[in-house]
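Narrative of accomplishments. A recurring question from our advisory board has been how the design workflow behaves on a single, concrete structure rather than in aggregate. To address it, we present the structure tokens for one chain from the evaluation set, followed by the sequence designed for it. No filtering or post-editing was applied between the two.
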């Protein structure tokens, strides 16, 4: 069965080199840079995990906004998005589309980037993070970007970053906490009430929300609890059929997208095999293609 991996990552060569010129210490700060299939496109194509899979590419979280001023960040993002679109166009047998980068230290510029993304046939949305510049994605300063995405009918891919105020960040649990907190903050900001057309895809199967559904339903008011289920989520939790079953039970089959987090998780090219095996254990039959293709296609139109 053909599969669309809706949440895979890359650092395109030109963008990565530009960022190295600005911040040469990036490889020392981020251990994931050492993954060859993230930064070397030829190596990625050589070690392709599954010939039945095409990937939707978003940038690994080396964000221009964290290193340069707003004007320069927008220019870096614009060039990176064009480079990403070309990677997709040059390899249609491997990549379905790209997810653009924004510069949240320039809100007007990011709204302009969204407009350009909407005009590019090889880009389908933009990536946002749980925190930008030390602030929650639900901070009112960022709302114009969410509003613009809703206006343009562009989905947003929500990826976690560490809260730098915390001394004990780790990859096992911290990112799932950050995703859950960001979802709660967006819901409490009434973002889906203000922008009913807004579509947000949350990494890692919706993080903690499915497991704590009872707490969500009893602690939040009914409207907010219902809004929690308006997120879309992927299957990138390194396997675990039981957890995927819980996510489907909570969000509904129509809100689940196949995603692997490639090339992260399992070396050298990601956890595609582990995620596919976990999905096979669900015994979904007729609903299987919804996860693998249909839900993504409906979401991005």
């Amino acid at each position: 069965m053909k599969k669309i991996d809706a949440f895979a990552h890359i650092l395109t060569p030109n963008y990565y080199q530009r960022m190295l010129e600005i911040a040469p210490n990036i490889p020392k700060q981020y251990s994931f840079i050492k993954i060859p299939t993230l930064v070397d496109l030829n190596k990625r194509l050589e070690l392709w995990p599954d010939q039945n899979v095409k990937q939707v590419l978003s940038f690994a979280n080396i964000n221009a906004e964290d290193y340069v001023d707003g004007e320069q960040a927008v220019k870096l993002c614009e060039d990176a998005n064009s480079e990403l679109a070309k990677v997709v166009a040059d390899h249609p047998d491997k990549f379905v589309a790209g997810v653009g980068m924004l510069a949240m230290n320039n809100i007007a510029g990011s709204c302009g980037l969204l407009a350009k993304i909407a005009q590019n046939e090889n880009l389908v949305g933009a990536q946002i993070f749980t925190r930008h510049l030390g602030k929650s994605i639900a901070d009112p300063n960022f709302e114009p970007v969410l509003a613009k995405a809703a206006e343009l009918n562009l989905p947003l891919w929500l990826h976690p970053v560490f809260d730098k105020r915390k001394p004990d960040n780790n990859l096992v649990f911290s990112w799932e906490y950050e995703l859950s907190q960001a979802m709660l903050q967006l819901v409490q900001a009434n973002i889906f009430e203000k922008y009913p057309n807004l579509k947000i895809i949350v990494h890692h199967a919706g993080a903690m929300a499915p497991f704590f559904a009872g707490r969500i339903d009893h602690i939040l008011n009914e409207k907010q609890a219902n809004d929690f289920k308006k997120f879309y989520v992927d299957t990138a939790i390194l396997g675990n059929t039981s957890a995927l079953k819980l996510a489907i039970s909570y969000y509904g089959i129509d809100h689940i997208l196949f995603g692997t987090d490639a090339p992260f998780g399992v070396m050298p090219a990601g956890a595609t095999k582990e995620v596919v095996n976990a999905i096979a254990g669900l015994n979904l039959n007729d609903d299987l293609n919804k996860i693998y293709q249909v839900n993504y296609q409906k979401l991005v139109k």
